[in-house]
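During the practical work, I selected for study one protein's amino acid sequence and its backbone structure tokens, as given directly below:
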Amino acid sequence: MKILIDLQCCQTEAQSRGMGRYSLSLAKEIVRIGGEHDFIFLLNRHYLDKSADLITEIAKLDDLGNVILHDYPSVQYDWHERQRREQVANVLRNDRIETVSPDVYHISSVFEGESVYGAAAAFIDFPKPPIIRSATLYDFIPLLYPDKYLTDWPVALWYKRTSNLIPQLDVGLAISDATKKDAERLFHMKPERVVNIFGSVADHFRILPASEAHRGAVWRRFAPGQKFILYVGGPDFRKNLDGTLEAFAIANKELADKYKLLIVYDIKGAEALALREKAARLGVAPLVVTTGFVSDDELVELYNAASLFVFPPLYEGLGLPVIEAMRCGAPVLVGDNSSLTEIVDDPAYRFDATKPADMAKSMVRALTREGELQRMRAYSRERAALFTWEKSARRALDAWEETYAARRGRKTPSAAGRVPRIAMFTPLPSAKSGIADYSAEFLPALSKFASFEIFVDDVAEVETYFDDMPIWHHSQFPFKAHLYDAIVYQLGNSPFHHYMLPYIESFPGVVVIHDAYLGYLSYDPGNPDAFIRRMIQEHGGPARAIVLDGEGGDRTARSLVDALPCSATATHRSLGVIVHSRFARNVLVGAARPGAAPQIAVLPQYRARPPRETTPSRAQARETLAIAPDSLVIVSLGHVAHTKGVLELIEAFTRSTAAKSGKAQLILVGELEGGANHDSPYAREVLRAIGDRSDIHITGYVEKEDYDLYIAAADIGVQLRTLTRGETSRAILDLLTSGTPLVYNRMGSSAELPSEVGVALEGYASADIADALDALAGDPQLRQTYREAALRYCDETLDPDKVGARFVQTVVAMTARAETCGPKIVSKTIARLLRDAPITRELVQDIARAYVRQERSEIAPRLLIDVTHIREGDLETGVQRVVRELTRAAYGWSDAKVRPQAFAYTDAGLIFADDYAQRCGARAAVEAEDMRFGALDFRPFDKILMADGTWHLADWMREPLARLGAIGGEAFGLVHDILPLQHPELFEDHVKISVTNWLTLLLEKGSGLICTSQSGADGLIEWITGSGVTPRRGLRIGYARLGADFSSRVDVFTPITAATSDLAQRENLFLMVGTIEPRKGHDYVLDAFERLWASGVDATLVFVGKAGWSVDSLLQRFENHEEKGKRFFYLGFVPEADMARLYQSASATIVASIAEGFGLPIYEAAHFGSPLLLSDLPVFQELGGEHARYFAAGSSAQLAAALREQLARGPIPSKGVSAPSWADCAGRIFEFLDGEHVYRQF
């Protein structure tokens, strides 16, 4: 089923209350255990700015592509205008839901408090059947106590109007038996339509170890050293706080001030004053304490520390605090009413909540009777174990599945009782297509249930005609389209269906997909680039990665065809899709995202049992084929190819007892791959495996008559697959309908066959195949059992009349559902609603914008990568190298959930930076003509990765980030380093100010900061702690060590320059690589070598790197050095091949920074085997570990000593320094953006 869960109540103020927590916990568990279903989440676009935590939780469940949004013009107007606008909102919401075509629409809460005065639009009606309408039913307390809750007439009107929708529900998920009975009593709902699913609480509610139970800060603050009775609730009359105070005062007369009453509620103002006054009047003021707001962790500590938990409401829907307390092992007393009697089923632990004296009596008994608290704690543990989210989720799924099964069994009536008229696009014989044969055989059965007209590519080539079924050339369809009730397109993975594609787009209908992989349908060998571009658009990174690694042209196009479903073009525009297996369905859903996928139904391929009068008998078939009557015949049908497990079957047969008996033979009925000459390595391998055996035969291609003879002659059929693309094996169906005992392996659609129809293998190991053959060969009764089961399955499931009836019913239902929604229906409905009052231009525009926004919400969110600086010019700095490599990795990422888009900041706002992505090789060459320019607009849930050091733009970025946050997007910063803040003396003041502003912005508005090393993360956390900036709640800190794929860009055959060749011959060559900057330490490294040279050491020092800033005097020193060109060389830029040779030849690579964010030269040097001499910065020690020699940063003397030590004792090998690839680095960053690899969270 496709299940749409409305989680609006997890976005509004209810998100922090029991209703919001219940809804999210239930939804998460339903998704966890309901893996066979597709789940989509519906959110309210008006509350995305308050939904960060919810979005994070949904992202953990699945791709945010499974979230859709509903939108509408603001409803926050006066009452009369609000009513009009809520009707519009309701039309838009229902259209959004019906467009997605879920099987189940579940509303987490029908009663949304913000629908009275807030931004949430009230429910006025629900989507139309056949969508199953479901809702969680918490309680109907306002109807039970109207004098308390429904005295404000707008509230009363809203609540009563919304209540009237309850009877429309197909499934009500009550959270208790009390609520179930109320629903049946108040709304006359049939008992079978309301299911009690109970509920549970989060796992962090638990019994703490004794050492933790009494150390909570809240307990120490409010009841230090004293026992206490715990109450969780507020002044709402139903929560019975007054009764609790009175009961506590009565009980205290016997308890003698030994216990405090701790009230967990953030009570303020007049309510707090009234509470204090009442406690004073009762004489217990010093013993009554209110905690104010407490966190979940603090609440757990209080439950664990409490002597007794009292829950005295007059009525409850469930009573989650009771389960929370029980989970924490607290002794519990509850009111003897409503759902509380279901949680606490022992009357000894209940009291009459309307009588304070009875409550007091229970308190005193629990706290004074010997052993009573221990018994109550044991009871709490026992009862708490019964309430789990898994049980609740299973009950919900069972209710939906039962309703869905019952609804599927009902027939969809045709319009006005007439036979539907259906247009079908399909190839027909003589087209050499299996689907042509399938349609020709299936249409007579279908014609019993509908009137069909056929549209083909070439009428002249058609060999099969039908009575009362006209066959037309497809060009005539546009003139006849209005005549049909439905349109069907039969699609397979071949060019025979290519003519249908323009019609699918212009005249959407129901698409029947026979092959889950459809690359050859739209692949045009004459125009591979267009196909490649389309595959990149549809599949993103996985397709682009293949293209970037390929040779281009037809070879790359064929690689895409083999690797990817390529089905989006054929399915996204359709009204519905029919496939023949759940495997094929899962392939389509994986490619399309459930939120964007159309209705998908799984119907088996029909297969009729062969007519007895025309089917040869076993004896006749064997006589015709010259097979001995007593021979055991094992057949495998179809093309003898590498995907069919033929070699394993031959080996299994050879080793089987059946073969050794001399009476068995294996017949491979089909043509060996490689053509008539068997011109393929696999064909030659098959022939070698057969050798000169006379009991294994390959028939070659056979006509249908002979094909049927081999089936009739067979005792056992074997059909194996080593690779599947979602096809349904016609050979398996032929064997099943003939009753031939079958051996098959569970792969693709064959895994869905019932186990009793044949011997199902999990793989295709020859030993397992041999065992199966021998089991069947040696037991005629077993073969008969499988034969009967196979024929029974065919009669019940594959019968043409049964499949045909379901097929027509499904097509008609899918078409009818699609016709209930869409822009035309929406505009007509809204016009009718608003016809009695003036309509402003503003409202019309708001409606149009809302409709477009919610329709576009199924467009997948993106990862927006900031390339502002590098787009202007790649200076080959370390930061820009990171940006370049991350961009390349993102665009070619194998996970389609990462949808990258490079962007840049300009005076005009954010713009597309496809030009840079193209230039740096992140995009494929064929994408050049599809580059986008101009303004970039945010989509809901987009994520920005600020990677390009645009620190000076912090103030300018504030407004775009606010806009992004308002639609559920997130901003992340890649922190290369915070050196300007740690070493301000090395930087100009404006740099420090810019970095501070940039970090502050992301701390306040962002979702996370990721550093390039653990050391960097530690430094950032230390700075944040001392900065005085309060990070946004939930802000994540992580780290991902940078990659080094230096070698991947070096061609070993690239010649190097003569100068590099000369340097590489030197014996004591020391290398230093990196931009020339003061903090890199070039000056004191040169000092150290001057010490060595002065002492007679012969060594060569080479600096490689572009000049940075504030280094004029240092460059002058290089230029004027007496060893320049002798034993000291400053090379500036060096080609990559030359760089590799220098690393390989160096006695050591020196990285001498006095402050550094990372140190890519360490990885690069180690990759080429260069030993390492590193300053002792924490980040260098993190990267180099024990595989480098260290010296004090900034000390020329210590560096000189380290150099002498290496020359005397030899280098420390660097081979243990392992650098992640850029792909590994990028992967960790992308996973961090999704909530993984969190090092610290605020």
